[in-house]
Amino acid sequence: MKTPPSNFDSRWENLVRQAQADAGPAPDLPALLRAVRQAPVVSREGWAAEFTALFASARVVPACLAASCALACFASWQAWDSWQALPWAQLLTTATGGSP
Amino acid sequence: MEILVGRHQAAVARLLWRFVRTKADLDDLVQETFLRMVRGLPGWRAQQPFSHWLLRIATNTGRDYFRRQSVRRRWMVEPNATESDAPAPEAIDPAGDPAARAAANEVKALLAQLSPDERTLLTLHHLEGWGLAQIAAQFGWTLTATKLRAWRARGRLRTLLQTNESS
C-alpha cells in the first residue's frame, strides 16, 4: 500500500511550485561587460604547459607507478644481463691468471 | 567576448538567482561566473557545448557562494543570526509576482540552514528541476551518494519545516 503524502510533502511541494515561478531581476549588463573587458585574457601556453599538465595532481600517482614499473623492469634486465656474463668473466679470469 | 556575455548572461542570471536573494549578490555572482569563464576559456575543449560548460562554471560559483556564506555564519559574532535576518530585498527589487518571491525567499531561507553541498543539491533539484543524475555528473559525485545526500537533506528539511510550523 502506498503511503499517503505527509503534511510536509504537500506543504513543501506547494512552496517549491510557487518558488519556481519567481523570476529574478536582470543583471547589470553594462557593469558586467566592463568587468569582462577589463579581465586579462590568458593566452594558451605552448607545448611546455601541455607537458606540465600531464603531471597534474590527478596523474601523479599513476605516473609514479608507471615510472616505478619501468625502472624495475630495466634494473631486472640489467641484473639478468650481468648474471649471464658472470661465467664468461670467471673463465677469462682463470685463463689470464687474474691480470687484465 | 561581449557577444558571448550578451548571449548567455540571461541563462546564467536565471540559474544563479536560485542561489541568492538580492540583486547585488546576483550581480556579483554573474560577474564572477563570467570572469571565471574568461580565465578558463583557453582550457575549454569544443567537445562539450559551450552553454553546458558555462552553466557548470555558474553552478560551481553558486556552490562556492554557499560555502563562503557557511564559513561566514560559523564565524559570526551572533551565532543565531541567519540569512532570514537580512533586510527584505523586495524594497530594492520589486518582484513581478510577490507571492512567488515570498515563497522563493521562504524556500531559500529554509535551505540556508543546510550544509553548502546539501543546499546546492536541493536548490538545483527543487528550484531548477535538475535530475539527481545530472547533479551527480555536474559535481563528480556518484548517483548513489547523491541520492543518499538528497534523502538526508530532505529529512533535515522536514525537521526544520516542522520546527518552523510549531514555533
Task: Describe the overall structure.
- Chain A is mostly helical and 100 residues long.
- Helices cover 72% and strands 0% of the residues of chain A.
- The longest helix of chain A has 40 residues, at 57-96.
- Chain A is elongated.
- The termini of chain A are far apart.
- Chain B has 167 residues and is an all-alpha fold.
- Chain B has one domain (2-166): RNA polymerase sigma factor, region 2, helix turn helix motif (Rna Polymerase Sigma Factor, Chain: A, Orthogonal Bundle), CATH 1.10.1740.10.
- Chain B is built from seven helices and no strands.
- Chain B has helices at 2-16, 23-40, 50-74, 98-111, 116-127, 132-139, 143-166.
- In chain B, helix 2 (23-40) crosses helix 3 (50-74), helix 3 crosses helix 5 and helix 6 packs across helix 7 (143-166).
- Chain B is globular and about 50 Å long.
- The termini of chain B are far apart.
- The interface between A and B is medium-sized, with 28 and 42 residues.
Q: Most extensive chain contact?
A: A-B, 28 and 42 residues
Largest sheet of chain A: none
Number of domains of chain B: 1
The string of secondary-structure elements of chain B, in order, is: HHHHHHH
Q: Show unreliable segments of chain A.
A: none
Q: What's the number of extended β-strand segments of chain B?
A: 0
Query: For the record, what is the CATH homologous superfamily label of chain B?
Result: RNA polymerase sigma factor, region 2, helix turn helix motif
Q: What is the CATH C-level name of chain B?
A: Mainly Alpha
Question: What's the short story on this structure?
Answer:
Chain A has 100 residues and is mostly helical. Helix content of chain A is 72%, strand content 0%.
